[in-house]
Amino acid sequence: MPLTVGVLGMGYVGLTLTAALAQAGHTVYGVDSQPRVVEALRRGRPHIYEPGLTEVFESMVGRTIFPVGELPEAGLDAVMVSVSTPVDDRTHQPMLENLRAAAAHIAQRCGPETLVVVRSTVPIGTSRRLVLPVLLEAWGTALLCMAPERTIQGQALRELVDLPQVVGGLDEPSLEAGVAVFEQLAKHVVPVSSLETAEMVKLSNNCHTDLIYSFGNEIALIAEQHGIDPLEVIRATNLDYPRPDLSKPGFVGGACLTKDPYIMLASSPDAEPFLVGRARELNEHLPVHVAERVIAMVARARGGEVAGGTVGVLGWACKGWPPTDDMRGTAVESMVPLLRAAGLTVLGHDPMVHPDVIAQYGGTGVPLADVFQADGVVIVNDHPEYRALDVEPLVRGGRAAFVYDAWRVLDESTVRRLGLEYAGLGYRSRVAS
Ligand SMILES: NC(=O)c1ccc[n+]([C@@H]2O[C@H](COP(=O)([O-])OP(=O)(O)OC[C@H]3O[C@@H](n4cnc5c(N)ncnc54)[C@H](O)[C@@H]3O)[C@@H](O)[C@H]2O)c1
User: Fold this and answer.
1) Where does the pLDDT of residue 14 fall: very low under 50, low under 70, confident under 90, or very high at 90 and above?
2) Which residues line ligand 1 (CB under 6 A)?
């Protein structure tokens, strides 16, 4: 039976959820507190890039998708809360004001017959301690679920249907209502026994991902000290070995992986976790390490003189695959200031990122070929365009003396045959240092 659903927060999560619900035949009121976001959506123009999203909004706005500044006063079967839950830049403490405001708005506009679903990522216990009291004060009773968003950007519309939807309920009626709603969206629904379990599932997923990536990075940093190729180690380690695989080294970016470990830390006030914080620290160190390596390579290329040099950076978004324009948690955020502080000019290219955004992060946006006019080139993300790069004409037409290929997307032998120094994460260039 088609539902009428409100979605609070029209960011990455709310927009894709709105589109997926509409595609499944439901009517959706998409609410955002920023008028410019609502205005753009009313014109069928989502302000973020996600494959398939614009097409759904263009065809369904005004029919089954209604972008609004406030929830309608009646008639909603469910409200999904997908507002941002950032952490403070300095203290890393979760900031839950948006969630509090969303709960108050729902309490004002809806009633106890409307199922409230917390979709945002929150510290364990937040749905019960922060959202529930606001609803109970207004209504006396409430149907409340926590169903975390677990999609990856770039594949969200597919994953919203294909990924199991984990749902925890305040009580049996809440859980039943939550399962019934998500069964109308996704192929698999996984009921869990409490709101807190569902909250912790999300945090565990992301902290685990941060941790396994950090281990690949740890291996890379150790291999580098011995002149060992970490990819050779990792390949041989994993090949036909029936126990857990190592992940390749790489930058760990994106809005969630860079903040959710801090939300997990805030969820463990009585005993500091051993691994979560250290894994994050290591992954945040990686761009700093790469910047130092790149500065050393510029020094070699310029006879010891770093200041006044140029570095070309390919890939500014937080990841290259699936392609995204998302800059949250991007490695360039900490890398570029270090390059600039060393006196380097940074040229930049990313097929997904506008030159204005590159400028905001301290670079000068240029066409791809011009990046090779720098003293050296750093490949920061693995966008498919970089994997498919025909490097020979770029090198011949440019003046770069090295490539730091963080994702090892280029053919090393070609780069070296063309006379350039080649390096990657944890991979020391074979040219004498
Ligand atoms: N980005 C992801 O891929 C992803 C994946 C899984 C989970 N999450 C989690 O989902 C939540 C939302 O993430 P996002 O990436 O969509 O955030 P976002 O910053 O892209 O969007 C959040 C939106 O909420 C709006 N908003 C804030 N307070 C509001 C309020 N009181 N009422 C109405 N609108 C309000 C903001 O204006 C903004 O447009 C976060 O908790 C995040 O951790 C994100």
Assistant:
1) very high
2) 8-14, 31-34, 37, 82-85, 98, 101-102, 120-121, 149, 151, 153, 255-256
